[in-house]
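testing teh design pipeline on a random one, pls ignore if ur not involved
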C-alpha cells in the first residue's frame, strides 16, 4: 500500500508526529446548507435570484438585486440524531438539541441618478453560519479482530525501548510519536522480541475475545463575515464583489474502551482500558468572491460566481490519556495496570481550502412563482496543508490521489398564493468528494489531527426543505423546515498493512446523521 513507510518514517522527526491528514483538510473545507429561512426552504437555489443576505456567501451579485435598504436575522432550532450500525453489535443512537443564531445582515441601497446605465450601488454586511460540527455518537463492537493496542504497537515498531521510557533526564514526548509513548507508559504495548518490535497487550489472536465501545462528541462551527458591494445595470445585469472573513472553531473528545475476556489469566478473566483523546482547533481565514446575474429575458435569469480558496491560519491543542485495568501478570506476579497521560500540545499550520464555481438558472413565472436550479463545483483535490517546518508533501499528494471534485445540486420553487403569502419547497444533494477506492476498500489513513485515531469518511448529504413566508408592510417573516441526512463510514482507528497484506482489522461502522431544523427569519425593508 502507498502509506506503508509512513509509520516507520514518523519515528525520525518531531513535527510530523502531529500532522493533519487529508480528512482533516476535508472536514474544515466542507460547508453545510445554511442561510435564511427563505433561502433554506428553496433548497439554497438562489444563485440566479439574489435579494437575500444568504447569497452574500454564495453569489455576491445577489446584493445588486436589492431595491431597498434592508436588515434581516435568522434563528435556528435543530435536533441532530446520530445512529451507528456495526455487523457485530447492531445499532446505537444518540441525539443533540441546539439553538443557534444563523445569520444577520444589512444592505444599504444608493440610487445613482447621475448615471443612465448604473441604476444603483449597494453595499452590505452579513454574518452567516456556514457549518455546525455539533453532534455526539457512539458505536459498539463485539468479537473484534484487532485491538487498538495492536494498532499502536505496529506504529511503534522500529523505535528502541529506551526512546519510549520517561526518565529524569529524558522526555520522549519531545521526540517520539505521542501514542507510542502513551501506549508504552500505560502498558498497552510492550516489547515483543528483537529488532525493536512491539505487541499489543490485548492479543486477540491467542485466545482472547474482545469487545469495544467508541464515544465521540464534536462541537464547533464555521462562521463567515461577508463584506459585499454590487450594482444594477439597467435591470438586466447585476454584479457583486465580496470578501469573506472566516472564523473556525472545532472541539473533539473521544473515548475508546476495550474489554477482553482472557480466561487463562490467573485469578481473573477481564482486562479493560479506556483511551481518551481531546482536540481543540481554531482558525481564521479570508477569501474573495465574484459574481454576476444576467436577465436574457424578463422571465429567465442566469447566475455565475467564483470563490477563491479560503486561506486559513490554524492552531490546535491536543492531548490523550489511558486508564488501564490489568489483564496480565509480570514476572513477580503483580497485576499489570497503568494510568498515563500525554502533555498538552499545541501546533500551528495553514490550510488552503478548495476553490468553488457556481452556475445557476431560474425562471420567474409572472407574479405567481419561481423555479430555480443551482450547481456548485468544488475542487477538493486542490486542498493544501502547510507549515513553517517541513510542509506536508505526503498529505498533499494523498489529497490529490484520494479526493475528487465535489458536486452539489440544488432545486427550489416558490408559489405566491397571495401578494403577501408564499409557499416554498426545495432539495439539495451534496455528493461525496472521496474517491470510491477509498470508500469501498480498506486503506491506511496515515495521519489524523493531534493524537486522535478516530475518523469518518463522508458518503454524501441530502436536504429536503419546506417553508412559507408572509409580507406585511415593510416587515416580512419566513419560516422553514429542513431535514438533513448525511451518511458516513466510521473507524475507531485505521487499517494497517504489511506489504499488500492487511494486518490490523478495525471494524467499520455505518454512521447516519439526521438533523431536523426549524428556521425563522424576520426582516425589515426601508
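output:
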Amino acid at each position: 500500500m502507498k502509506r506503508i513507510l509512513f509509520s516507520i518514517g514518523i519515528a525520525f522527526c518531531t513535527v510530523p508526529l502531529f500532522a493533519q491528514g487529508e480528512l482533516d483538510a476535508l472536514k474544515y473545507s466542507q460547508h453545510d446548507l445554511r442561510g435564511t429561512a427563505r433561502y433554506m426552504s428553496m433548497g439554497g437555489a438562489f444563485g440566479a435570484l439574489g435579494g437575500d443576505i444568504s447569497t452574500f456567501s454564495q453569489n455576491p451579485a445577489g446584493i445588486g438585486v436589492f431595491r431597498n435598504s434592508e436588515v434581516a436575522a435568522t434563528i435556528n432550532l435543530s435536533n441532530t440524531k446520530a445512529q451507528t450500525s456495526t455487523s457485530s453489535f447492531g445499532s446505537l443512537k444518540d441525539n443533540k438539541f441546539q439553538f443557534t443564531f444563523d445569520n444577520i445582515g444589512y444592505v444599504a441601497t444608493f440610487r445613482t441618478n447621475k448615471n443612465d446605465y448604473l441604476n444603483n450601488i449597494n453595499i452590505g454586511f452579513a454574518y452567516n453560519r456556514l457549518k455546525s460540527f455539533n453532534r455526539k455518537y457512539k458505536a459498539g463492537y463485539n468479537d473484534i479482530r484487532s485491538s487498538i493496542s495492536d494498532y499502536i504497537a505496529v506504529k511503534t515498531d522500529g523505535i528502541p525501548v529506551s526512546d519510549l521510557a520517561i526518565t529524569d533526564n529524558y522526555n520522549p514526548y519531545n521526540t517520539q510519536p505521542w501514542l507510542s509513548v502513551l501506549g508504552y507508559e500505560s502498558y498497552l504495548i510492550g516489547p515483543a522480541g528483537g529488532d525493536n518490535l512491539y505487541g499489543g497487550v490485548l492479543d486477540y489472536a491467542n485466545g482472547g475475545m474482545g469487545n469495544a465501545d467508541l464515544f465521540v462528541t464534536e462541537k464547533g462551527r464555521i462562521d463567515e463575515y461577508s463584506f459585499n458591494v454590487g450594482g444594477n445595470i439597467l435591470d438586466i445585469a447585476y454584479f457583486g464583489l465580496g470578501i469573506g472573513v472566516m472564523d473556525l472553531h472545532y472541539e473533539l473528545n473521544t473515548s475508546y474502551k476495550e474489554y477482553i475476556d482472557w480466561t487463562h489469566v490467573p485469578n481473573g478473566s477481564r482486562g479493560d482500558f479506556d483511551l481518551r483523546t481531546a482536540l481543540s482547533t481554531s482558525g481564521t481565514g479570508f477569501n474573495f468572491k465574484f459574481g454576476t446575474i444576467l436577465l436574457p429575458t424578463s422571465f429567465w435569469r442566469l447566475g455565475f460566481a467564483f470563490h477563491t480558496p479560503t486561506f486559513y491560519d490554524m492552531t490546535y491543542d491536543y492531548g490523550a490519556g489511558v486508564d488501564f485495568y490489568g489483564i496480565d501478570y509480570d514476572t513477580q506476579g503483580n497485576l499489570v495496570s497503568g494510568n498515563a497521560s500525554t502533555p498538552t500540545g499545541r501546533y500551528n499550520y495553514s490550510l488552503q481550502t478548495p476553490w468553488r464555481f457556481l452556475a445557476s438558472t431560474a425562471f420567474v413565472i409572472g407574479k405567481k412563482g419561481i423555479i430555480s436550479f443551482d450547481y456548485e463545483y468544488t475542487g477538493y483535490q486542490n486542498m493544501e496543508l502547510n507549515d513553517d517546518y517541513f510542509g506536508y508533501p505526503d498529505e498533499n499528494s494523498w489529497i490529490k490521489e484520494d479526493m475528487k471534485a465535489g458536486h452539489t445540486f440544488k432545486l427550489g420553487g416558490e408559489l405566491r398564493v397571495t401578494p403577501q403569502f408564499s409557499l416554498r419547497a426545495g432539495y439539495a444533494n451534496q455528493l461525496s468528494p472521496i474517491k470510491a477506492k477509498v470508500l469501498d476498500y480498506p486503506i491506511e489513513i496515515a495521519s489524523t489531527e493531534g493524537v486522535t485515531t478516530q475518523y469518518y469518511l463522508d458518503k454524501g448529504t441530502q436536504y429536503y426543505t419546506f417553508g412559507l413566508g408572509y409580507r406585511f408592510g415593510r416587515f416580512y417573516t419566513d419560516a422553514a423546515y429542513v431535514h438533513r441526512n448525511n451518511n458516513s463510514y466510521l473507524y475507531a482507528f485505521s487499517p494497517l498493512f504489511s506489504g499488500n497484506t492487511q494486518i490490523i482489522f478495525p471494524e467499520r461502522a455505518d454512521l447516519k446523521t439526521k438533523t431536523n431544523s426549524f428556521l425563522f427569519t424576520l426582516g425589515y425593508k426601508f
